[in-house]
Amino acid sequence: MSRLVADDIATALRQRISAGEWGDDGRMPPERDLASQFGVARNTVRRAVGLLEQDGTVIRHVGRGTFLASSKPDSMAGVVMRMEGTSPADMMEIRQLIEPAAASFAARNASSGELAAVQAAHQSARDASDMPAFEHWDAEFHHTIFACSRNEFLKEIHNLMRILRNQSPWFEMKKRSFSEDRRQAYCSEHQAIVDALLSRDPDGANAAMHAHLRTVERNLLGR
Q1: CA-to-CA distance for 97 and 76, rounded, in angstroms?
Q2: Domains plus CATH for the chain?
Q3: What are the φ/ψ torsions at residue 120 (nearest 5 degrees)?
Q4: 117 HSE (CA, 13 A, CB side)
Q5: How far apart are CA 75 and CA 68, in angstroms?
Q6: Taking 70 as the threshold, does the pLDDT of residue 77 lie above it?
Q7: Is residue 92 a contact partner of residue 220, using CB atoms and an 8 Å limit?
Q8: Reduced to 3 states, what is the DSSP secondary structure of residue 220?
Q9: Rounded (to 5) percent helix, strand, coil in the chain
């Protein structure tokens, strides 16, 4: 059974947890029961529950079962679980709020070595020969800019957004909107961001990032 199936089951489980299922005692059903509900092999459910354990949604106790990390709606885990269903439109709005600011901070705060990492990710995206490779280096390009911001809270917010954007529905949407012409356009816009960063131009970096994200929004959402 593919990893994609495990990802989809993990997403469904997070949605059920967010809706309050199993909230009374915080204990999830056994893997064999979940496998029967989803109509998959037990090891596929085990992988899906493992993904929930990795991100802190659940805790496994040997001999006792699997329990929600927290059943409180205002807990950190509860907030993260509700973010699972974030729409692409909402995500793009938030990206346009925080990524230009991150680029501005990076222009002021980044070391020469950190800027070199941004340039390297940009060059790898330009050299990418297929969509998965480009997506990987595109994500690295944006990630390294957040790392350059020297704002740890902002960087962790981006890490959370990156996890949400790596879910299978997001990848499929990006795959449908991808073309070589658009890849070239993204790379040109990335170059404008790099140029502003190297010039230590916070306002220019902010404007270049915002222009790039508007292009991404039009291509993904048609608006």
Answers
A1: 22
A2: 3-72 (1.10.10.10), 86-221 (1.20.120.530)
A3: -65, -40
A4: 14
A5: 12
A6: no
A7: yes
A8: helix
A9: 75, 5, 20
What's the pTM value of the predicted model, to 2 decimals? 0.68
Does 200 have pLDDT greater than 50? yes
Angle between helix 112-127 and 88-109 (nearest 10): 140
Mind listing the pLDDT tens digit for each residue in 88-137? Answer: 888 899 999 999 999 999 999 999 999 999 999 999 999 998 898 999 99
**Which amino acid, 59?**
I
Residue 1 pLDDT level (bands cut at 50, 70, 90): very low
Largest CA distance in the chain: 59
Q: How far is CA 151 from the centre of its chain?
A: 18
Which is it for the CA torsion 47, 141, 99, 182, positive or negative?
Answer: negative
Q: In whole angstroms, what is the distance from residue 216 CA to residue 177 CA?
A: 9
